[in-house]
């Protein structure tokens, strides 16, 4: 169904979440927003390109969900409260049915977090979705990558590796588990957990590029070393069922991206508070290591050094 640019924008505007702090939303040259007094503005942006950030066969509703989810995840990793977003949409054809389906996913997640879409841009081009997210944090409360300290526990939320397993299954072209695929297409941003952690943790990052790679960013920024016990990594039932080889599974967990779980460093004295925060946020958390003096990330298994096996798709298919 072909549609004009303004028809598409009208469809988008009709679906947006209402908020009192949106003085002027979609429809003028720019939006007018009223941040709460005394709060810092937190800003993040992430782009999803077809074929690079999601498989070409991804449903439009899932693309909509994920475009918002990856940005909410960045705010969660800062310990921020999300409020507003903008959306830049490049479409090869001005297809109203596609936009409606996209909005079904986008809007479902936006409503969950009371995020208002306040503006954007609609252009013709290869399918690409770029969202900017705006939120708030109390001054001094943001969870920065540079704030991990020697002696901290290292934690991870949820069950890393599921999204990478779904991508591996999709690539291999064999059996595909819908539970794993949902973890790839509809990641759950850990917004409530991030908010609660801002009171008790030192540093956090969301796992978009793989647990060990993202943890390495924290170590570099904090000038510390991370020791991760791969035996402690929590495994989902779906991942255990899909990948029987332990080393392949661990490699997906340690190096696979797209999980959008939180990896965070927190003082040992906060263990009980962290379990309480996880209970409130309805997401399991697992202690997987500790911060020590030095640089880089070392992974261990059974007390010895551990290196991930190559996770080629062939290996996975076998
Ligand atoms: P301008 O030419 O001033 O940039 P546009 O025609 O691009 O105006 O946009 C008109 C209004 O629609 C603006 O308020 C803009 O923020 C909004 N808008 C355009 N595209 C989108 C989109 N994909 N999502 C949300 N708002 C959009
Ligand atoms: Mg414009």
From TrEMBL:
Residues 149-299 form the PurM-like C-terminal domain. Residues 27-137 form the PurM-like N-terminal domain. Mg(2+) 5 binds at residue 209. It is an enzyme of class 2 (transferase). ATP binds at residues 120-121, 145, 208. Pfam families: AIRS, AIRS_C. Mg(2+) 4 binds at residues 29, 74. Reaction mechanism of ThiL seems to utilize a direct, inline transfer of the gamma-phosphate of ATP to TMP rather than a phosphorylated enzyme intermediate. This is Thiamine-monophosphate kinase.
């Amino acid at each position: 169904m072909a549609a004009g640019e303004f028809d598409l924008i009208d469809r988008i505007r009709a679906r947006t979440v209402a908020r009192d702090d949106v003085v002027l939303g979609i429809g003028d040259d720019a939006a007018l927003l009223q941040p709460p007094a005394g709060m810092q503005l937190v800003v993040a942006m992430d782009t999803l390109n077809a074929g690079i950030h999601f498989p070409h066969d991804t449903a439009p509703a899932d693309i909509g969900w994920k475009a918002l989810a990856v940005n909410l995840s960045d705010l969660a990793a800062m310990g921020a409260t999300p409020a507003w977003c903008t959306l830049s949409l490049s479409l090869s054809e001005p297809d109203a049915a596609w936009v409606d389906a996209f909005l079904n996913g986008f809007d479902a997640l936006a409503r969950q977090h009371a995020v208002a879409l306040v503006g954007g841009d609609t252009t013709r081009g290869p399918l690409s979705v770029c969202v900017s997210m705006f939120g708030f944090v109390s001054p001094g409360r943001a969870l920065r990558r540079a704030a991990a300290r020697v002696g901290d526990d290292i934690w991870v939320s949820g069950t890393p590796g599921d999204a990478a397993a779904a991508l591996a299954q999709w690539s291999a072209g064999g059996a595909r588990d819908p539970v794993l695929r949902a973890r790839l297409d509809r990641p759950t941003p850990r917004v409530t957990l991030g908010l609660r952690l801002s009171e008790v943790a030192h540093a956090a990052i969301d796992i978009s590029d793989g647990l060990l790679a993202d943890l390495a960013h924290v170590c570099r920024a904090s000038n510390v070393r991370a020791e991760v016990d791969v035996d402690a990594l929590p495994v989902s039932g779906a991942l255990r069922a899909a990948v029987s080889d332990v080393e392949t599974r661990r490699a997906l967990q340690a190096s696979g991206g797209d999980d959008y779980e939180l990896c965070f460093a927190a003082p040992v004295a906060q263990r009980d508070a962290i379990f309480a925060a996880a209970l409130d946020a309805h997401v399991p958390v697992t202690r997987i290591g500790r911060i020590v003096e030095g640089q880089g990330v070392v992974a261990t298994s059974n007390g010895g050094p551990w290196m991930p096996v190559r996770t080629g798709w062939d290996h996975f298919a076998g």
